[in-house]
Automatic annotation (TrEMBL), chain A:
Keywords in alphabetical order: Cell membrane, Membrane, Phosphate transport, Transmembrane, Transmembrane helix, Transport
Protein name according to UniProt: Phosphate transport system permease protein
Cellular component terms (Gene Ontology): plasma membrane
Species name: Bremerella alba
Membrane topology per record: Multi-pass membrane protein
Family to which the UniProt record says this protein belongs: Belongs to the binding-protein-dependent transport system permease family. CysTW subfamily.
Biological function: Part of the binding-protein-dependent transport system for phosphate; probably responsible for the translocation of the substrate across the membrane.
Automatic annotation (TrEMBL), chain B:
Protein name per Swiss-Prot or TrEMBL: Phosphate-binding protein PstS 1
UniProt-listed Pfam families: PBP_like_2
Species this protein is from: Bremerella alba
Gene name of the encoded protein: pstS1
InterPro entries given in the database record: PBP_domain, Phosphate_ABC_transporter
Signal listed as a keyword: yes
PROSITE patterns: PROKAR_LIPOPROTEIN
Signal peptide annotation: none
Length: 280, 289
């Protein structure tokens, strides 16, 4: 093996190991900080306690797990179809000039900081949704804004996936007289499925990790949501709201909340990437 | 201190005297003056930190050899760090609790907590019983406390926040009985929530609310027990729901720490205290406990 190859091999292996190690170090840290609470309280009480009042010894995390899943999955349900449609639009339906501008605008959407989204949701969207009842700060408002925030991820990755669909197949289909819609539906979408799926997974994990905007919009009350108009608190918002003010045992309990979030994210990513695999 | 060059010593003396002119504490600073170089670390309340950061900047201008490092992390962390000696001084936006008597609080400012409603809400004042029954969900409609016919949206703070402690203590509410519609973090989050929801009630730092009202934000502070909620009534001690903003030390703080605390309590920083929407306290040493 030439020297330069050897060097590159070492560098890439070390980098790969380091990036995997970062995740393990974070997990280890989470475990270390959460251990006092897990030993003292036990994992089961985080699911069976009456409510979330950590200063009074009640530690129920279930409503927060539900709120986290509802807002993230809801956001992907909004962003998924819109993002995929956007990817198809720029390749098959938009005039070239419009396609360029459309791409730029979608990319710009990705650059808006999440507090700005949060503030916009708080002063513009929440008062509108308040007309449906309540304060306007609820799971629906958070989900809609979260959907807008993860939209560019799906749109850009769908755009790339659609661009990678084989030209010969598309041209061949066109030569056979298939309509544009039939080409998109029968050839482009199946061919770009794994790329689009990657975009959806990335969007979902981003939605699961988003904190600031959700904290500002979801209402943060910890109770089992009964509808989309119920307020809810996500696991991340819980940490952001309370960690700065938490001392010893309360702090440790918040690390358990982080650990559970990590668990929820891992389960979702593993399940989805299993389902996405057979395609390529 | 034998090593300090006489000329340097004189310079420091002159600077520190100039810095303390008009302050009642100038005598002490002459004694402590040989120690006015060094590093201080402060941690704690995110409410107090911005104010102390400003004061520290001014202090460093006057004493170029002193370095003051301000970090946040909440009142609880400030108190714990001061106790364990991790920080020279802790910052707390609440009074010390009964199990924290081994520490000394040096009050540098006060902050009132006031109830706010949307300015379109006709309510001017609520009694303590009414506030209690609203927050524990016994009163659910504004018409029951003399307002319009509309559901009350209860805005509450997240567990562990100092403002929450002040509120719960004042109205003797057990936090587990509170039935909130929205839980907020920062004061501005609370104010924006009330602005966006005409039938909401919340509570925030009076200074922040006053500044927003001055900027035409449509909220109104409610009087409490017949006392108007304003920084003026907090300063005079009339307003009942207020909290001290303090610097926390052990019994024997270093001379530099003492000097910094004295500076924070002096009239020379009152403009900074007001600019952060807090209420200055008198410059008497150890005004707190």
């Amino acid at each position: 093996m030439p020297r330069s190859d050897l060097l590159l091999m070492i560098i890439s292996r070390v980098s790969a190991l380091l990036s995997a190690a970062v995740v393990l170090v974070i997990l280890g840290f989470l475990f270390r900080e959460a251990t006092p609470a897990l030993l003292e309280i036990g994992l089961s009480r985080f699911f069976t306690d009456r409510s979330w009042h950590p200063l009074s010894g009640n530690f129920n995390l279930k409503p927060m797990i539900v709120a986290t899943l509802v807002t993230s999955l809801g956001a992907v349900a909004i962003a998924g179809p819109l993002g995929i449609a956007s990817g198809l639009f720029v390749h098959f339906y938009a005039p070239p000039a419009l396609a360029t501008w459309h791409r730029r605008i979608v990319e710009l959407l990705a650059g808006i900081p999440s507090v700005v989204f949060g503030l916009w949701g708080l002063v513009v969207l929440a008062p509108i949704i308040a007309n449906l009842g309540g304060s306007g700060q609820n799971l629906l408002t958070a989900t809609v804004v979260l959907g807008l925030m993860v939209l560019p991820t799906v749109a850009v990755l769908s755009d790339n996936a659609v661009a990678a669909a084989p030209r010969e197949a598309i041209h061949g289909a066109a030569a056979l007289g298939m309509s544009r819609w039939a080409i998109v539906w029968e050839i482009v979408l199946p061919e770009s499925r794994s790329g689009i799926a990657a975009g959806v997974i990335l969007a979902l994990t981003r939605a699961l990790g988003e904190t600031m905007a959700v904290l500002m919009l979801a209402g943060n009350v910890v109770e089992m949501p009964t509808s989309l108009l119920s307020p809810g608190r996500t696991l991340n918002a819980n940490i952001a709201l309370e960690l700065g003010y938490a001392s010893t045992s309360h702090r440790s309990v918040l690390f358990v909340s982080g650990l559970i979030l990590m668990l929820v994210v891992s389960v979702i990513v593993i399940v989805i990437s299993r389902r996405g695999r057979p395609i390529r | 201190m034998k090593l300090i060059h006489p000329a340097l010593y004189t310079t420091v003396l002159v600077i520190s005297l100039a810095g303390c002119s008009g302050s009642p504490s100038s005598e002490v600073s002459v004694e402590a003056d040989g120690n006015l170089s060094g590093k201080l670390t402060l941690t704690g309340s995110s409410t107090v930190a911005p104010l102390v950061t400003e004061i520290a900047r001014r202090f460093e201008e006057r004493h170029p050899k002193a370095r003051i490092d301000v970090q946040t992390g909440g009142s609880g962390k400030g108190i714990a760090d001061a106790r364990m000696g991790v920080a020279d001084i802790g910052m707390a936006s609440r009074a010390l609790k009964s199990d924290e008597t081994d520490l000394t609080a040096h009050q540098i400012a006060a902050d009132g907590v006031g109830l706010i409603v949307h300015s379109s809400n006709p309510i001017e004042e609520l009694t303590a019983e009414q506030v209690n029954s609203i927050y524990t969900n016994q009163t659910q409609n504004w018409k029951d406390v003399g307002g319009d016919e509309s559901e009350i949206i209860v805005v509450h703070k997240a567990e562990g926040r100092a403002t929450l402690d002040v509120f719960l203590n004042h109205f003797s509410i057990d936090n587990t009985t509170v039935k909130a519609d929205v839980i907020v973090g920062e004061n501005e989050h609370g104010i924006k929530t009330v602005v966006g929801t005409e039938n909401a009630i919340g509570y925030v730092s009076i200074g922040t609310a006053e500044a927003d009202i001055a900027a035409d934000v449509p909220i109104r502070l409610l009087s409490l027990g017949g006392v108007e909620a304003s920084t003026a009534t907090v300063a005079s001690g009339e307003f009942p729901m207020s909290r001290p903003l303090s610097l926390i030390t052990t019994d024997s703080p270093s001379p530099l720490a003492m000097e910094f605390i004295r500076f924070c309590q002096s009239t020379e920083v009152h403009d900074l205290v007001r600019s952060q929407y807090f209420v200055p306290v008198t410059s008497e040493p150890n005004a707190a406990q």
